[in-house]
Amino acid sequence: MGYPDTFEGFMVLNQKEWEKFKRQEFKPKPFEDRDVDIQIDACGVCGSDVHTIDGGWGDAPMPLCVGHEVIGKAIKVGDKVTTVKVGDRVGVGAQIKACLECKNCKSDNENYCPQQVDTYGAPYPDGTISQGGFSSHIRAHEYFTFKIPDAIPSYEAALMLCAGITTYSPMLRAGVGPSKKVAVVGIGGLGHFGLLWASAMGAEVYAISHSPDKEEEARSLGAKEFISSKEQDWHKPWAFTFNFMLNTADATDKFDLPAYMSTLAVNGEMHHVGLPDNDMPPFAAQAFTPNGCKMGGSHIGSRPEMIKMLDLAAEKKIKPMIETIPISETGCRDATRNVKHNNVRFRHTLIDYDKAFPNR
Fold this sequence. Notes:
Elements: E1 7-12, E2 21-26, E3 35-45, H1 47-53, E4 70-77, E5 89-92, E6 95-97, H2 103-106, E7 117-118, E8 137-141, E9 146-147, H3 154-173, E10 181-185, H4 189-200, E11 204-209, H5 215-220, E12 225-228, E13 242-247, H6 257-261, E14 264-272, E15 294-297, H7 303-316, E16 322-326, H8 329-340, E17 347-351, H9 353-356
Parallel strand pairs: 10-11, 10-13, 11-12, 13-14, 14-15, 16-17
Antiparallel strand pairs: 1-2, 3-4, 3-8, 3-17, 4-5, 5-9, 6-7
Helix pairs in contact: 1-8, 3-4, 3-7
C-alpha cells in the first residue's frame, strides 16, 4: 500500500534470529491531531536495540523494527501541532508518547510517566505496537518531536536523541559544572558522550575504563586523566575524589561496586545509565557509609532537557565519534552485530535512506 497507510522497515522476525533483518511493511498507529509524520534520513544504532532484539532484556513483540535515534523531515502535521511545521528537520528519541496530564508529566518528568510509550516495541492504547527508525517513516506526538539546530549534521544529531540525552540529563540534574569532579565509567557509545557533556559543562573530567587502548580517545574527548580499572587496586589512589560518577558500562554485573563507590567524595553519587542483561552484584549496605555516598539511575530525559542539550551541542560544536553505514538488511545486521561485540568507535548511524526507500 505505502505511505500514509503503511510504512516500510527492516524488521527482526524473532529473537532467536536477531541478526536477520527482513524488509517489510507495517501499519502505523492512527494519525491524531498532535501527531507528526517524519520521512527518515538517519537513525542511530543503540545498545538498547541489541538488548531488545537478542532477548537480553526479555521478550519483545515480534516482528519488530528498532531504532530510537531518528532524524528526518516533517512531511505531515496534525491540526493542533504548534511546535513543528512541514519541512522542518526534526528528531525523535526513545520515547514517543506520554499522558502529559499526570504529576510527573506536569513537572517536566514525562520520561517517568506511568503511561509512556517507547518509540518501538510498546503498545498504543488502540493495540498498535510502536515501530522504530530502521524504517521509511515514523509517526510521533509533537511533544516528543524536536527541531534540530542547523549547526548539527543529521548523522551526528541522531545519536544525541538517546545516547546523548541519557548521559546529559543526569549530569544536568546533578548540577555538574566547573566546581565538580566527574568520573565517566565505560568509554563507549554512552561513555564518550558523558565525557563530551561533562567537559562542555565545565567539569574536571576523568575516564575510567578496563580498555587501556581507549586512553588517547578519552583524552581527546575531554578527560583530564585516564584510569585503568584493569589494574589491581586501581581505586585506592582515587579515594574520596569524585562528586559524580556516571556509569555507562553495561557490564555492571561484573563490577566490584564498593571499589567504585570508594572513589566518591563525601555525599557523592554513582549514577547508572548502562543497563546490563544480568542483575547487579550483591554488596553490603555498609559500602555506603564510609563516604555517605549514594547510588541511582535514570531513564533518558525530559523535553526541556533535550532542547537544552541540542542547544549546548550546537553552541559548543560537540562532535561524537561515529561510523556510518547505509541502511539495508545487511547494514542493519552489521551495525547491530558491531554494537553487540563492541566493534565500533563509538556509535553507528544508519544513512542513505533515500537510496533504500526511493519511492516513499
